[in-house]
């Protein structure tokens, strides 16, 4: 028995949504699922030719504007496709995630028209990728402590600093760099600028050897007085709130990756406990196993519904998501994925601890998605801030 998509199938999908979801499932299953374990074991960066293949199918521009080659579809349609791919192969899903919910969406929604014309067609085609660079050695959850500077000097911007934990770091062609652009304290001095990877002064640290996220490169980035044109400024100082509201779209993509992990772990477990026999009967006949499966299903469906609510509000190219709804969805989905993959490992016993069944890989990836884009702890802080309509000084 396979319950994948039970909740989604209950949603009303139009013909276009159903068609692209079916194509995504077919491509993910036939082309990428067989490669997922190998790419994980060998820490293989996603091949350029495969990214271009995804672009040729239209997957890299589902929720990006039609005038640049995208599909112009609602964000939820892109999330549906991300889930289908992440269910089978996270490195492949990451390409669709980065293009449809990552910094390209920031450019599409709050960038200049010139920036859109310069970067979006290449991203949609798979010719280039864009990554976001926020965290630093001393500014992770405390993002407003960042010290990377972007100084405007006439028609040039000079960028200096060090970014850390950059997904697709050393692999992306362009970086959306959150930078301190004025002497104003805290968030008031922060803006963002685009820095192309081939600019003089851009260099990288060694690729991180992470517990999960294998096949998704991560590395420090160093900016040594990198000069870019002033046209690369996306948000001027004082626009940090706008930047982070736009970043909420990436958090919806993150939540979808977690959702796919939880759904996959649940589906594998449902099949396994009906096939595996102990003490003369299938595992599903034991009440403790039934309770575990029920808890897993409750958590997966709760995460799905919260995600659908948050994504459903993003209706057009300029609409930004509700920050409270995004934090609720991300916190729930991240913790669900960690817990459900752990329960799946327990239900599979020794088999779950082997690489053969793929559950340990899911569990490793689940922890990575919970750390990326704002941890569940930080999401809880944001949830309370949004509920009360006030901020809290964590430095006091």
UniProtKB/TrEMBL annotation:
PANTHER family documented for this protein: ACYL-COA DEHYDROGENASE, ISOVALERYL-COA DEHYDROGENASE, MITOCHONDRIAL-RELATED
Family: Belongs to the acyl-CoA dehydrogenase family.
GO molecular function: oxidoreductase activity
Any coiled-coil regions, as ranges: none
Domain Acyl-CoA oxidase/dehydrogenase middle, chain residue ranges per copy: 131-226
Cofactor(s) essential for the protein: FAD
Keyword Oxidoreductase applies: yes
Record EC number: 1.-.-.-
Protein name per UniProt: Acyl-CoA dehydrogenase family protein
Top EC class of this enzyme: oxidoreductase
InterPro entries: Acyl-CoA_DH_CS, Acyl-CoA_Oxase/DH_mid-dom, Acyl-CoA_Oxase/DH_mid-dom_sf, AcylCo_DH-like_C, AcylCo_DH/oxidase_C, AcylCoA_DH/ox_N, AcylCoA_DH/ox_N_sf, AcylCoA_DH/oxidase_NM_dom_sf
Domain Acyl-CoA dehydrogenase/oxidase C-terminal: 239-387
Superkingdom: Bacteria
UniProt organism field: Rhodococcoides yunnanense
SUPFAM superfamilies xref list: Acyl-CoA dehydrogenase C-terminal domain-like, Acyl-CoA dehydrogenase NM domain-like
Pfam families: Acyl-CoA_dh_1, Acyl-CoA_dh_M, Acyl-CoA_dh_N
Residue ranges of every copy of the Acyl-CoA dehydrogenase/oxidase N-terminal domain listed in the record: 15-127
Keywords, in A-Z order: FAD, Flavoprotein, Oxidoreductase
């Amino acid at each position: 028995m396979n319950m994948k998509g039970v909740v989604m199938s209950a949603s009303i999908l139009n013909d276009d949504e159903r068609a692209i979801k079916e194509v995504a499932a077919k491509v993910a299953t036939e082309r990428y699922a067989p490669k997922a374990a190998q790419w994980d074991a060998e820490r293989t960066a996603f091949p350029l030719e495969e990214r271009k293949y995804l672009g040729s199918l239209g997957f890299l521009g589902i929720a990006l504007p039609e005038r640049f080659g995208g599909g112009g579809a609602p964000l939820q349609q892109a999330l549906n496709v991300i889930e289908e791919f992440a269910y089978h192969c996270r490195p492949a899903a990451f390409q669709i995630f980065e293009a449809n919910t990552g910094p390209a969406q920031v450019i599409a929604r709050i960038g200049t028209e010139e920036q859109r014309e310069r970067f979006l067609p290449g991203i949609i085609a798979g010719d280039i990728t864009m990554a976001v660079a926020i965290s630093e050695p001393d500014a992770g959850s405390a993002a407003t402590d960042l010290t990377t500077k972007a100084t405007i000097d006439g028609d040039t911007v000079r960028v200096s600093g060090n970014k850390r934990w950059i997904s697709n770091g050393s692999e992306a062609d362009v970086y959306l760099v959150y930078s301190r652009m004025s002497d104003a304290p805290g968030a008031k001095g922060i803006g963002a600028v685009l820095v192309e990877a081939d600019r003089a002064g851009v260099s990288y640290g060694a690729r991180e050897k992470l517990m999960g996220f294998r096949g998704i490169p991560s590395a420090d980035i160093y900016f040594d007085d990198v000069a870019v044109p002033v046209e690369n400024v996306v948000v001027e100082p004082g626009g940090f709130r706008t930047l982070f509201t736009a970043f909420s779209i990436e958090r919806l993509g993150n939540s979808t990756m977690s959702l796919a992990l939880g759904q996959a772990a649940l589906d594998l477990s449902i099949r396994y406990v009906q096939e595996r026999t102990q003490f003369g009967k299938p595992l599903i006949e034991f009440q403790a196993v039934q309770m575990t499966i029920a808890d897993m299903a409750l958590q997966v469906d709760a995460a799905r519904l919260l995600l659908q609510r948050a994504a459903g509000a993003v209706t057009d190219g300029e609409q930004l998501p509700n920050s409270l709804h995004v934090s609720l969805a991300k916190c729930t989905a991240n913790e669900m994925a960690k817990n459900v993959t752990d329960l799946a490992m327990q239900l599979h016993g020794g088999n779950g601890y082997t690489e053969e069944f793929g559950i340990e890989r899911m569990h490793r990836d689940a922890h990575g998605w919970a750390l990326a884009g704002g941890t569940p702890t930080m999401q809880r802080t944001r949830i309370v801030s949004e509920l009360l309509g006030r901020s809290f000084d964590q430095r006091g």
